[in-house]
Design goal:
The protein is 41% helix and 15% strand. It is an alpha/beta fold. Among the domains are: 60 residues, no CATH class; 278 residues, Alpha-Beta Barrel (TIM Barrel); 61 residues. A hairpin with an 8-residue loop joins strand 16 and strand 17. The longest helix is centred in the middle third of the chain and has 24 residues. It binds pyridoxal-5'-phosphate. Pyridoxal-5'-phosphate (PLP) binds next to helix 12. Pyridoxal-5'-phosphate binds next to helix 12.
Amino acid sequence: MSDEIFQSYGIHRWSQGMFARMENGDLGIVNPARPDAPPAGLPELLHALDARGIHTPVLVRVGAFLRRQIEALNAAFAKAIEANDYNAPYRGVFPIKVNQQAEVIDRIVEYGQPFQFGLEAGSKPELILALSRDLPKGALLICNGIKDAEFIRLGILARKAGINCVLVIESPAEADTVIAEAKRLGEMPALGVRIKLTRRVTGNWADSSGDRSTFGLTTKEVVDLVDKLRDADMLDCLVLQHAHLGSQVPQVIDIRQAVDEACRFYTELRRLGVPLQYLDLGGGLGIDYTGEARASENSINYTMDEYCSNIVETVKYQMDAAEVPHPTLVTESGRAIVAYSSMLLSDILEASYFDRSAPITPEEDDHHMLSDMAAIVEYLTPRRIQECLNDAEYYREELRAMFRRGVIGIEEVARAEQIFLYVIGRIKDLVAQTPDVPAEVREELSAHRDIYRANFSLFQSLPDVWAIDQLVPIAPLQRLNERPTRRAVLSDITCDSDGKIDQFVLGDGIGNALPIHELQHGERYFIGIFLVGAYQETLGDLHNLFGDTNVVTVDFNEDGVLELQNEVEGDTVSEVMASVEYEPKQCLDAFKRIVERGVREGALNPSQRRMLMQTYRDSLNGYTYYEHEEQTHG
Ligand SMILES: Cc1ncc(COP(=O)(O)O)c(C=O)c1O
């Protein structure tokens, strides 16, 4: 039976073996390096944290899960490369925006060291922190996003310090700034071009793909860029082609088709004489949040191995057909690297039960409808479930109307509510034991789910669940050997009616109620919300580390002239970095050491070092948004 209970939460389907039920019924995490060792219990962890004064809700990051995913992705590409006689390596990068926390980035850099795993920066603040991370030699630092001149200068000069920065051109105007900066500095950048694929992928993020996507150059703009770079004598700089396939792509066929199209661009650009070496396919590798292994918004119909072999096979086939050397393959997988590694653990504070187990008898003077309602249980049989439900709803409505009109008093309507809950409880019991109950009845009964209040904020911790109905697995952390007798929605402690979760990943699909145990007096009841490592930690207010904007208050004065009355400066790069656990001074010192090494090795002269450090310092103290040159120097 315990297995059945564990499986009713679908844990065996979505957890990829990283979570397991323990003998005592607790949920534990499995060490991926020693899968046969006993799991480590999560309730035990929470008690140990509690004793140290670290209380729920707590976001738990598991380093070993992060390492597992980085190793798995690199191993899957290595396997596909070998199996297909592919002649170039895979060099993945982690897109910082997916989880910018210093702790996470540092571990990714550490675990990715053997694979020359790099980083992707989508904004100036992200570049500033990436530059301070001492990536392994050969690892890529891909710079996406709209770049101002300062951003571009950093990207060009950092190459001199041995950092493999590639500036991906996102628009025709950006190309002009890059050419101007390169000429001014007398240094050549490594460039990429972001192309717009015409194929749209399916899923929640379909809009980031296809030719209506807001990013990337149209085919005509790509051809113009080639001419522009050739005219500027900079065509040799264009070494990377970037195309973002989308995010959480549900269907493997979409990936194959998008890669196929990206290859057509690549081989054609090579034909035009562009010396491309890297094919960057962006993000898209999905996570099976529901464990259903099907092509739907929260699931995927492929494995990581299939994703990698589909890419390698497709690229090899296309390159061989066009007689083009195999490019180094790059992906910017974010979600697949970090989603598993974080979970939000909390506890239930209270429960509102929407039924009642003990019967209640109406009083002598009560309206007859109370007795009529109480009598429903006498004719409750599997065939008459719907009728009983209708009757109970009818009596309750009538009695509530009588209360509103002043016919019955508050104690009487309170008794009526209790009788109703008792009848509903018996109907729920019978439904639980009856196969083939009409969907309509289940639907109606779902209005009477319990409400369990958990100590967390949906808006702070799970913004995608609130905003785009992302599904994440949720399960109790204890009593997994005891059948849960309640069905509940989870409510958070914000005073917002949206602050609830009412869609759950279950063993047999998606349900609108979480099977959950009745609370026991004096005992804490913990729950876990899993696979929240990607996008959830800082998405709410610091996407890409763009901070607060400048704020001004203006008003008309007595003469009717509009005047500035108050001004609040927006965040600087160092301020947003501090909010995701970086110490800006340490970043500056770390970057200084990297740059000085470049000077020692003769790659950069002292005056270039001064300019690079000055630009870095200016960026740290500057605004997080695009700055025009006169602003950065103002
Ligand atoms: C340019 C780029 N690269 C990579 C990613 C990461 O995608 P995913 O988390 O699906 O791997 C994104 C996210 O949308 C992106 O916009």
